[in-house]
Write a sequence for this structure.
DNA sequence: ACACTGAATTAGGTTAGACTAAAATATTAT
DNA sequence: ATAATATTTTAGTCTAACCTAATTCAGTGT
């Protein structure tokens, strides 16, 4: 008996974990302007070598219907099918983070790694049920917007705290989830999304003095940490 | 910068999804006596060809520390490390089924497929937190015993309803989770684990007439369905 | 003891996705 | 405009896990 693959399953998830990772990286590196993403940037982000990236982009861009548009020596951007899958993965990731945090009591520095793995493997049903028991949450534990189902997500207008002007109040919109140690440090300093901060001073090596509302003393943080905190103008 | 793999992660989950599937199949086909499992039986169960099985068994049995003991032309059985991983997968699977059913409101014919996929990818933390919010459940939705963490599981003393003697009350201990359509039929007939049944009659083609307590009429089921219901003597 | 048959293994091939080393191309600096 | 440098691609390998076709082996019946 030949086992014929479930066509539903195949159509829902025709992409491998590896292809998924490329698509999500292209989405995130391309940003809101959907800029061409370079081979180098992808290799760096994915932790693999550039020839592997070139090979994958050639393969992906030669398949029909194609997931990406690739221009040799120039870069790659998502085609419609690739963009759909990438945003779906972002939704899976952020819903999973919310779920792991709220239901399974993970701390906010623990959720990313698990979500990064599971986002590839959950079914549509799992996604829908998790969204339902959470009451269709809008925001993940790090302040990132959870895109709606089947919808293209949006990039928030936010900028690294490291590039915010001095003495101008800013509200934290999100923090990068990619480094657990940074997250623990950020939490220790009381810098959750929603908190308003003012940069008092930047010293020569780039480290910041930041004032929080209703706090006596300012907090100090290095450039690196200030690069993983994102803010907008306080309304 | 070379990315060195997280040693914890590696030691916890050094097995691929494919190897996982072999280990679980060897566990289940070997049964409580840990009988040698044949190449054919594995190929059949896993839906792959026999030469692929031979190749995998040769590879697995030549690695140190070995997951399986393989005797050419005779069969394969689990080595200690393989048995540990296989029981861990069984625990993951059954906990996930319980979780999907109780928390995410999956029906009992929907849980198996999702658990079969996710069992390979959840972390120890996920396993522990799910067990905690469920209150360390003992039994999965199909009546299977959930093994304790790090513990070797047990095979229950149960037998297919299809081989139970006539007119002797039997209590359903579990039902096979591998066929969703059968599960829906079993549910329709009111045959949950815990229910006591008596076989009134077996007709020539092997189909059964089964009486349930406190029910007027008997239910009819074919041989196939009676082979996916497991029972023990009613105390 | 020997032929038959079914099960298992060997031999050789494919695909996905990674790697290194070398070559080609693009960008930047003189 | 040309040379130096950085980026990208090509060429050739490797491993995991599957496949088909051909061969070998083990158990059975005469
Ligand atoms: Mn989805
Ligand atoms: Mn996040
Ligand atoms: Mn585990
Ligand atoms: Mn089950």
């Amino acid at each position: 008996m030949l086992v014929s693959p479930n066509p539903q399953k195949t159509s829902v998830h025709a992409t491998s974990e590896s292809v998924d990772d490329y698509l999500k990286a292209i989405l995130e590196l391309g940003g809101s302007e959907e800029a061409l993403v370079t081979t180098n940037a992808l290799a760096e982000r994915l932790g693999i070598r550039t020839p592997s990236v070139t090979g994958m982009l050639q393969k992906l861009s030669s398949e029909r219907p194609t997931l990406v548009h690739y221009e040799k020596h120039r870069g790659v951007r998502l085609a419609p099918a690739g963009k759909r899958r990438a945003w779906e993965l972002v939704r899976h990731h952020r819903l999973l983070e919310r779920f792991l945090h709220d239901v399974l009591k993970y701390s906010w520095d623990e959720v990313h790694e698990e979500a990064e793995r599971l986002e590839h493997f959950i079914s549509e049903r799992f996604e829908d049920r998790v969204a339902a028991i959470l009451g269709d949450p809008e925001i993940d534990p790090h302040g990132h917007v959870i895109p709606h189902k089947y919808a293209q997500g949006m990039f928030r207008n936010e900028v690294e705290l490291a590039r915010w002007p001095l003495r101008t109040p800013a509200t934290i919109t999100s923090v990068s989830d990619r480094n657990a140690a940074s997250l623990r440090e950020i939490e220790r300093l009381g810098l959750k999304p929603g908190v308003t901060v003012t940069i008092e001073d930047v010293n020569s090596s780039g480290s910041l003095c930041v004032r929080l509302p209703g706090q006596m003393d300012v907090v100090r943080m290095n450039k690196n940490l200030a690069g993983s905190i994102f803010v907008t103008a306080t309304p």
